[in-house]
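Q: Structure tokens for this one, please.
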Amino acid sequence: MKHKLLITITDTNSFRQYTLSQLFKWFAVSILLILLLAAIAAYFYLSWLEDAYEKARQRQKVLEHNITLLSSHIEERQEALELLGDRLSDLEMFVGEKPGKDFSTSTRLQNVTLSAAQLALLFSIVPSGEPLPMRGVTSAFGWRKHPIKGSREFHAGIDLRAKNRKPVWTTADGVVEYAGYHKRSGYGNLVIVDHGFGFKTYYGHLKKVTVRMGDTLIKGDLVGISGNSGMSTAPHLHYEIRFLTRPLNPYPFLKWEKEKYRSIFKKVKKVPWESFIALISHMAAQAIPPSSLPEQESKVQSSAKEASISTEKLKGTSLHKVMSSSRRKE
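A: Here is the predicted structure, written as tokens:
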């Protein structure tokens, strides 16, 4: 028998004997198993890295595409701003203001002083003033608890306190888009006036509508009589102003006056006033030559006074007729 090195492991109950070759075999098998497990783990790790790298490449392509789109969008915006600056320079030259190219567009807009003709055009297009004699606001613009449904809903206009049978007139020139009972909105008897250039006004909960769809109106014309129709708890006027279908807070427009016409530029941010004023200036320039502007302004002012007197007379006459007819029908 050959000499062998035996390793004996004993305990209280038994003992075991191992040769050196057996231990070497077990050690080699353990090393192989560890290497195999390491190889499998490395394979999965490399697969994960490859997938992560591919995803990163795809994200990089998407980001590069978005950057290209943003760059082109910025270039378009830059060109639009340059064009707007040129138009604003023309406007500044037209009204006699020194072009301020070192200032921001909003600052230059604040420094522009509009002529009487331009103001008249601006206030004939954009709703301003009160649609009926103001007696306070019963519900403001914004989120509120609906007085009838009890749910939290967005109030797209303001509710003006008004007694029954009070005259309601349009706050800008326009065309009647809708006139009648509007059940779906809950506004009852409703008049919608399209003033053009994206502006519309809504007059809801009327007792009586005095216009028809398609009628052409001048600012101050009667559109209806205040009441309590539709989903309403008391007589009042629901008044809305919308620009490109988006509701605007009507309150700043109620207090908007020609003497402080710049105030609306800061209070209402959802209207691009810079380009809008440039358009108004262009329209006024087409209607009135700059050489005859001072003479025309004096004529406009005198004509405006005569028109206001005539309008007041017509308002009183038309209101008297409407009130008489409504009483006879009732």
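A few notes: Confidence is low (pLDDT under 50) at residues 289-301, 307-311, 317-323, 325-330. The domain at 121-323 is CATH 2.70.70.10 (Glucose Permease (Domain IIA)).
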